[in-house]
Amino acid sequence: MTRIEGNYIPSASQWVRDQIDLYESTAGREGATLLDTGIPVIIVTMRGARSGAVRKIALMRVEHDGSYALVASKGGAPDNPDWYANLLVNPTEVTVQDGPEPFAVRVREIDGAEYDQWWQRSVAVFPRYDDYRAKTDRRIPVLLAEPV
Predict the structure, then answer these.
(1) So what's the pLDDT on residue 2?
(2) Average of per-residue pLDDT across 55-77
(3) Distance from the CA of 42 to the CA of which of 7, 97, 107, 122 falls in 20 to 30 A?
(4) According to the 3-state scheme, what is the secondary structure of the chain?
């Protein structure tokens, strides 16, 4: 079993905390979809860029050949989500849980044709990503989590 050790600081959002707790406590049998949408999610665990603490998020499950897109949309907000910096600073201290057990991944930001291909895969899973992109001036980053 792969774990990132350290002080865990849960999300400030209650629904995110609840979803992560449910997903982890049931080995992914419950809490595996985004609220009532039916869209599958994964749990991403990482090391905080400033705090060094363990942080966890639930993201849309965009998987292809064992790799996962981590879309830093923040709902189309003008700034990137905090977890984006965490992954850039600590790209090797990351796990993904897509089922019963988390596994180690290495994260990298993608660009060019690779970005375009993963963006389309992401929109196929969650069409609102295109809406988010239309409402912000920033280029929404996509990071790729690849098993190690």
Answers:
(1) 80
(2) 97
(3) 7
(4) CCCCCCCECCCCCHHHHHHHHHHHHCCCCCCCECCCCCCEEEEEEEECCCCCCEEEEEEECCEECCEEEEECCHHHCCCCCHHHHHHHHCCCCEEEECCCCEEEEEEEECCHHHHHHHHHHHHHHCCHHHHHHHCCCCCCCEEEEEEC
